[in-house]
Design a protein that fits this description.
Helices cover 70% and strands 0% of the residues. It has 14 helices and no strands.
């Protein structure tokens, strides 16, 4: 019997803050600035697509369609004029390791077993229609456990994220419209989503009107009954599309990952490294 979607979601939430250390600590940003990428968002997008090569604006907009095409389209051509994807990857991996070493709790007795389980879970991922996850899965892991931990969490979360893009597109939503429905759940604020994703007030308002016209939002920006159903279906589909690594581990393996990863992630939340609320919409595990 396949695992429940709730188990797939708990699996992801248990380690997502570990992956996100690379976005919320200074070390990765400092190394990309040293390479010539002065703007934080340029380093962010270059860092996420580095294993794919010199991705340009239209492809970036497709990969990151939760973001404004103007934001992604500006960042990546600018990045590749300064540095190669290989240079970005070589710089960010050790910088992320340093950030993890500094921010994770001192007690890491379960780390070897956690890495073993997460790397096993990666082998259960199918990469059809999942370009970011596929590219990161091809990055050879070094010997140190912290970088292996981060790479495994990266493949798993990009596998889920790519699946979420598939689910959103199948629901006939744009990335911006999906963002508005996410805000309407109350899990994340409009300020966080609009501010980080780069949408203008006009774009935001146009998307809101489209969702009202479809009967998914009311005029106050709240989910209608149909909108609530669509949002639940969207999350359920995302969980289902992320279930392959969970099925490979089985319920006992996933429970062990959650047991080992949760203290690490909670430490990152409780020490302020991973903020609440956050643009991902991840709660404290």
């Amino acid at each position: 019997m396949p695992p429940s979607p709730t188990l797939a979601r708990r699996f992801w939430q248990s380690f997502e803050p570990v992956h996100c250390v690379t976005y919320f600590t200074p070390e990765p940003a400092e190394v990309t600035r040293a390479l010539g990428l002065a703007k934080w968002w340029t380093g962010y997008f270059a860092g996420r697509v580095a294993p794919l090569g010199p991705v340009g604006g239209p492809a970036a907009a497709a990969l990151f369609f939760a973001f404004s095409p103007a934001k992604t389209g500006h960042a990546l051509p600018e990045a590749w004029r300064q540095v190669s994807p290989e240079q970005v990857l070589r710089a960010r991996l050790p910088a992320t390791r340093e950030a993890l070493d500094r921010t994770l709790p001192a007690d890491r007795a379960g780390l070897p077993r956690l890495v073993e389980l997460l790397e096993l879970a990666v082998t259960g991922c199918g990469f059809e229609g999942r370009p970011l996850a596929a590219a990161w899965s091809a990055v050879p892991p070094p010997d140190d456990l912290l970088t292996r931990l981060w790479l495994a969490t990266t493949v798993l979360r990009e596998h889920r994220g790519d699946g979420h893009v598939i689910a959103v597109a199948h629901a006939d939503l744009t990335g911006l419209e999906a963002g508005l429905t996410h805000v309407a759940t109350g899990d994340v604020t409009a300020e966080v989503i609009q501010g980080t994703r780069g949408w203008t007030d006009e774009e935001w308002e146009q998307a809101r009107r489209r969702l009202v016209a479809r009967g998914l939002l009311d005029r106050g920006g709240r989910l209608t009954k149909a909108g609530g159903t669509l949002r639940r279906d969207l999350e359920t589909t995302t969980d289902r599309l992320a279930a392959d690594p969970v099925m490979l581990l089985g319920e006992s393996g996933v429970a062990e990952v959650i047991e080992l990863a949760t203290p690490l992630s909670r430490h990152l939340v409780d020490t302020g490294v991973f903020p609440l609320p956050n643009p991902v919409g991840v709660p404290r595990p």
